[in-house]
Amino acid sequence: MTVRFVRPVSSSAYLAKKMAWSSLLLLLMAFAAHRFGPLTTPSFLAVVILCAVLGSLSIPLALHGLVQLWTTGAQGGIASARAIILALPAIALFAVGMYLSETRPALFDVTTDIADPPAWQKQPVADQLWLSQPTFVSPASRELQEETYPGITSRRYEGALDRVYDAVIKVAAANRIKFDKDKLAKGQSQKAKPAPSRTPQSGVGANGAASSASNPAVNPPATDAAPPVPDVVPIPLPRPSPALASLLPQAQAKGDLSLQGSMRTFILGLPFDVVIRLREEEQTVLVDMRVASRYGSHDLGLSAGIAQSYLRALDAELLGIAPE
Questions:
Q1: Could you tell me where the Low complexity compositional bias lies (predicted)?
Q2: What is the pLDDT of residue 185?
Q3: How does 134-157 read in b/e, with b if 16+ C-beta sit within 10 Å?
Q4: What CATH number does the domain containing 154 carry?
Q5: 284-293/178-179 β-pairing
Q6: What is the 3-state composition of the chain as percent helix, strand, coil, each rounded to the nearest 5?
Q7: 207-241 per-position pLDDT tens digit
Q8: Could you give the CA distance from residue 310 to residue 312 in angstroms, rounded to a whole number?
Q9: Most buried of 71, 84, 224, 268, CB within 10 angstroms?
Q10: Boundary residue ending a domain (103, 119, 138)
Q11: At 258, which helix (H) or strand (E)?
């Protein structure tokens, strides 16, 4: 009688493979919808947690399939190995987030000027859903930032305001910071109003020469009369760059020029709000920056990284006029 060996099948190994595939596919779809689509950050983080849970549950099942392969020769060894590999991205992403939340200070707003941070032109508002974010930054948070990130300080550059402004715009574009176009368009639409002409007297019209010619009794001709003085005398003024000239009407009374915009991180597309303030003081320009996470009360240290990267690039761009 022939004995035929029937190899058992590890159901846990194949179940682990299905769960790991589901975790990876769901993570990829959430990543694409958040980076390029309408998925908000709180929803994306919730999906990441769900994917990490699915991936974590698939790991014990995959290990059980490997044990069955070793002890009874059950089928499913390859499925178990694939399940472990497919579950790693979601687990790794969640693990990195937890590590940063434990090792980085609990901040969501950093600035170069702790005493007088640049003010928002329009307060960023976002639906936090299941996340929470304080409505204001406490003095304790500012002190924590000063202790943790001492390199985030104001920058003072020697040079004209328009030159520093051009460098600020150039470095912002290189760092994927996009300023609000509606504010720029509003500034460009504000033009200086023409000076009102003097009220004509004794029948003299707006065009004095034409009126005099038509009414010689009012203005008799004179051979030795001095030339007429124009109503409006142009005053020569320095001409800044066109972009800066459009924003000068929005400058504050004390000479500040604020630019507000936003940016997204390169990989995950996490949104951050940015405001840059330029303050002209005698022959120098003081540049301050403020970066805030749009969602949550912990930015995982990304706000400080954005500010430090921008300030280093600005120092390199203005090295020729920056003080030593």
A1: 203-226
A2: 39
A3: eeebeeebbeebeeebeebebbeb
A4: 3.30.310.80
A5: unpaired
A6: 45, 15, 40
A7: 444 444 444 444 444 445 555 544 544 444 444 45
A8: 5
A9: 84
A10: 103
A11: strand 256-264
Q: Rounded to an integer, what distance in angstroms lies between the CA atom of residue 160 and that of residue 158? A: 7
CA torsion 132-137-138-142 (nearest 10°) is 120
pLDDT of residue 196 exceeding 90:
no
Half-sphere exposure of 63 (CA within 13 A, CB side): 7
Residues 123 and 80 in one domain: no
Residue-number span of the structural domain to which 74 is assigned: 11-103
What b/e readout covers 250-266, taking b as 16+ CB neighbours within 10 angstroms?
Answer: bbeeeebbbbbbbbbee
pLDDT of 180 reads 79
Alpha helices in the chain (DSSP H): 11-36, 41-72, 77-103, 139-148, 161-174, 181-189, 208-214, 242-247, 302-317
Tokens 């090295």: give the residue: 319
Q: How many helices (H) and strands (E) does the chain have?
A: 9, 6
Phi and psi torsions of 285, nearest 5°: -125, 125
CB-CB neighbours of 10 under 10 Å: 24
Residue that finishes a domain, picked among 71, 103, 135: 103
DSSP code string of 298-310: --TTHHHHHHHHH
Q: What DSSP designation does 218 have?
A: T
Instruction: Give the integer Cα–Cα distance in Å for 20 and 17.
Output: 5
* pLDDT (tens digit per residue) in 11-26: 999 999 999 999 999 9
CB 272 within 8 A of CB 153: no
Query: Is residue 256 domain-resident?
Result: yes
Rounded Cα–Cα distance for residues 216 and 220 (Å) = 5
Residue 23 shares a structural domain with residue 155? no
Q: Does residue 167 share a domain with residue 258? A: yes
Q: What is d(CA 15, CA 273) in angstroms, rounded to the nearest whole number?
A: 43
